[in-house]
Amino acid sequence: MADPKGFLKEGREVATRRPVEERIHDWNEVYPDGIGRALLPIITPQAGRCMDCGIPFCHQGCPLGNIIPEWNDLVWRDDWEGAIERLHATNNFPEFTGRLCPAPCETACVLGINQDPVTIKNVEVSIIDKAWESGYVRPQAPEWLSGRTVAVVGSGPAGLAAAQQLTRAGHTVAVYERADQIGGLMRYGIPEFKMEKKHLDRRLDQMKREGTVFRAGIDVGSESSGLSGTKLRERYDAVVLAMGATEARDLPITGRELGGIHQAMEFLPQANRAALGLEQLDGQEQIMATDKDVVIIGGGDTGADCLGTSTRHGARSVTQLEIMPEPPESRPAGQPWPTYPMTFRVSSAHEEGGDRVYAVSTKEFLGDQDGNVRALLLVDVVFEGGKLTEIEGTEREIPAQLVLFAMGFVGPEKPGIVEQLGVDLDERGNVARDKDYMTSVPGVFSAGDCGRGQSLIVWAIAEGRAAAAAVDQHLTGSTTLPRPIPPTARPLVV
Ligand SMILES: Cc1cc2nc3c(=O)[nH]c(=O)nc-3n(C[C@H](O)[C@H](O)[C@H](O)COP(=O)(O)OP(=O)(O)OC[C@H]3O[C@@H](n4cnc5c(N)ncnc54)[C@H](O)[C@@H]3O)c2cc1C
Ligand code: SF4
Q1: What does the pLDDT read at residue 406?
Q2: How far is the CA of 241 from the centre of ligand 1 (A)?
Q3: Closest ligand to Cα 99
Q4: Which residue, among 183, 140, 133, 141, has the nearest Cα to 159 in the 3D structure?
Q5: Average pLDDT, integer, range 293-305
Q6: Does residue 254 sit in the same domain as residue 399?
Q7: CA 372, CA 353: separation in Å to the nearest integer?
Q8: What is the whole-number distance in angstroms between the Cα of residue 492 and the centre of ligand 2?
Q9: Distance 43 CA to ligand 1 centre (A)
């Protein structure tokens, strides 16, 4: 156990972010020198707050099965090499989750019953950042090759986790990605200020040294790629579909056709390219928020990323609309510990500005004489009897020259590889799989958002790891790879 009295002596402490005035003028992470370094002066006593519970409920919150009390203890004892060994035993990419995860482990932490929970996510990111700096993260190339080949389609966290596990198990793995660079949503969706791409690139370099082959710029199933789903299946002993849930939810109301209305994933990838000094694709003109009134429809992670990006562009105003009522500051009675509660959360982007408007629905987009959006017609709504009802007399306009949709994703795109392979879909339009992550087509597996529906990085990594174990079993008849979750596992929510 870490410090037996740690939780009595120390309160929860987090690293201080850079001043808002400074950070909104650049794209770097919001912590000085990166979060790992910012945490070093405070992290040891924070790890010492862990009580090493007899039944560590933090494990229930995390789909990876992270062995949290063990690495808390090792950090407290200053054994960072031991800590990264324990952390990597369950998580291929702690630098991603340590920066980006909403930390369901923390809302499940036993200390959280009557105190602030252990800063588990911060301990995690401190361990991995220090491990990279200290040279503890090395390529783990396989000792022998199985002679079996696997194609992974999609290079987000699910595809990368599956690829790393299978490469290390001795299979020859190629990851196909239609974007010009590897990384899935972590490359062109999530902005630099949340995770600088150098962290992704460092991990990809490790994977290349282990033997994983990356093929970026190949849209499997498209005519231009010359590589159909069927051909891919013939060419490889197994295929893992990890294409994400990239079909965005739309709002087909009056005025949708006006200029200046875009999906978040049209706006964010362009902003990411510009932040990294890359040219826009096909000479596209970049969508900019500069000097505009921006309205973001949708209140989640994607909406917050659009907010932080618009702030950095120099928007005149940014308003984030959410159809549901404002959540409470603290855990509501109906969402008891250890579930993940819906509470009012303030991300780094929210600290930087913008307004949030709750319980409101957009009725219409209003245009100007040039065919561009000039305003939204809003109405207040109330959630009663299981449905949303408009409140009479609350209709009003708010100005907007740029509208961004961040309303979630409805599933994987169907034309192309999904149709060519003929895999069955589930009732929600995701790629259906059996208990071993295998789709209706033998030898074709699915992992991450394309099978589970829109989710989180931590779930994608857990699925990638579990699907890799199933693929290994399929190819060789046995496996020693870990299998953290079945495809039916769901987050701890009420
Ligand atoms: C803007 C945004 C911000 C987010 N922020 C967070 C966050 O802070 N924390 C968090 O936990 N989660 C966050 N999420 C959710 C998280 O990013 C996803 O749950 C996760 O990336 C899913 O991983 P995945 O591997 O299943 O798919 P993805 O990351 O979506 O990757 C799938 C990849 O497959 C590629 N692909 C698709 N079809 C083909 C094809 N035919 N051929 C080749 N390649 C193909 C796509 O181009 C894509 O790169 C965010 C999501 C968005 C959109
Ligand atoms: S539940 Fe919290 S206090 Fe208990 S072992 Fe996990 S991190 Fe430590």
Answers
A1: 98
A2: 13
A3: 1
A4: 183
A5: 95
A6: yes
A7: 25
A8: 16
A9: 30
